[in-house]
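Dear H.,

Thanks for agreeing to be a second pair of eyes. The structure we're designing against is below in token form, covering all 409 positions.
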């Protein structure tokens, strides 16, 4: 019975750690953004330089911990590491659940959204088999040679780091966000008929004869003018249904939201995304983007640059570059969610996202002579890369199974 529970614990915890590490490794920029949100919420902006190393490190350690537990080698080392993860993150998630600095923990990237309390209770449940693995770690033995263990560990380390680096240097090979290619933006913003509506509770602080009292909407002293209003507070009781795309707002110079117009264009529309224009990787990319914008203009198609930068920053950028972009203002976090690149390209037609490019992959302007055809080709190429990556992963796992001849004490 003990042996069975150990095996089930090892496999269950291993799979969970592999999944958690993998979805973070696919999109390390997203993890870095989440860490930045946490540091900002706790007024620790001085540590922002650590967010990208943290994104790589946590994804790698989680994935390797899961791999070693699942395949059953180096159990002693990685059961300790799993326990350290839970010992650190369980109390941390409790504190986050209580203070609620951000709504989503980010523990499974954008693949699965959990509330802060769900994350805490998940960690409590996971801690049970993790503690058991730690207690029984010395009773587990394996026949695989140290050399084979080293080769497997090194191979999986290289693979997960390569996946993370690809996600930084290009776009994530798997996109779990609501703005992935193929999504229709208006549909993603719509609320289904009959969906649960948000519910709020408002309380009022009133003062009379030097004493303050809290009233709700039901017992508010509407007919007693001797009460003087001091303050009010509105709390969310039920969040209700929130559509996948709920913050996609793009404002022009006059404060008009251009999203309805952009998503209704029948012709392809190019969106150049630079969440913070002063932090964009421009250089040769700027010349390419100017040529692409010129191509769109000559074909009677529209292009915009989306940014959260201030008017002063935009003016300075235009003065220094003479780029001539049409600027729209959007929320910084939203723009970073749309595309993990600064700058990045997004091609939209009739409200559908049909193409996305990292600044390292910006094509020549001639590629956009027929933008829809080029987008389809780019999507096919990306799917081919994904299939190849999955095949390599499958072969690696199969090879690991063949190499690992283990026995449990």
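And this is the sequence the design step returned. I haven't edited it by hand at all.
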């Amino acid at each position: 019975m003990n042996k069975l529970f150990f095996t089930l614990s090892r496999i269950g915890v291993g799979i969970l750690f592999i999944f958690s590490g993998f979805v973070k490794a696919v999109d390390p920029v997203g993890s870095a953004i989440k860490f930045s949100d946490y540091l900002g919420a706790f007024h620790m902006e001085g540590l922002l330089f650590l967010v990208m190393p943290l994104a790589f490190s946590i994804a790698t350690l989680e994935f390797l911990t899961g791999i070693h537990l699942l395949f059953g080698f180096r159990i002693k080392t990685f059961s300790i590491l799993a326990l350290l993860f839970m010992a650190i993150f369980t109390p941390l998630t409790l504190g986050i659940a209580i203070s609620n600095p951000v709504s989503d923990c980010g523990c499974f990237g954008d693949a699965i959204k959990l509330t802060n309390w769900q994350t805490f209770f998940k960690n409590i449940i996971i801690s049970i088999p993790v503690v058991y693995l730690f207690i029984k770690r010395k009773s587990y033995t394996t026949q695989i040679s140290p050399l084979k263990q080293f080769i497997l560990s090194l191979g999986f380390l290289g693979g997960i780091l390569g996946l993370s680096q690809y996600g930084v240097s290009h776009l994530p090979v798997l996109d779990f966000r609501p703005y992935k290619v193929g999504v229709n933006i208006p549909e993603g913003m719509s609320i289904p008929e009959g969906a649960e509506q948000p519910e709020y509770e408002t309380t009022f602080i009133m003062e009379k004869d030097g004493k303050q009292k809290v009233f709700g909407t039901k017992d508010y002293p509407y007919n007693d003018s001797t009460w003087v209003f001091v303050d009010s507070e509105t709390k969310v009781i039920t969040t209700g249904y929130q559509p996948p795309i709920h913050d996609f707002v793009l404002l022009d110079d006059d404060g008009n939201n251009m999203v309805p117009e952009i998503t209704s264009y029948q012709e392809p529309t190019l969106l150049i995304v630079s969440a913070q224009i002063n932090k964009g990787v421009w250089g040769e990319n700027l010349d390419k983007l100017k040529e692409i914008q010129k191509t769109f203009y000559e074909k009677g198609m529209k292009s915009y640059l989306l940014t959260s930068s201030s008017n002063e920053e935009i003016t300075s950028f235009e003065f220094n570059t003479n780029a001539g972009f049409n600027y729209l203002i959007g929320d910084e976090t939203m723009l970073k969610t749309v595309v993990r690149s600064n700058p990045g390209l997004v091609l939209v037609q009739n409200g559908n996202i049909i193409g996305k490019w990292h600044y390292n992959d910006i094509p020549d302007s001639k590629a956009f002579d027929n933008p829809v055809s080029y987008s389809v080709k780019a999507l096919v190429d990306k799917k081919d890369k994904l299939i190849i990556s999955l095949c390599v992963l499958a072969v690696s796992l199969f090879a690991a199974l063949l190499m690992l001849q283990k026995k449990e004490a």
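Two observations from my side: The chain has twelve helices and eight strands. Residues 14 and 69 are 5 Å apart (CA to CA).

Warmly,
E.
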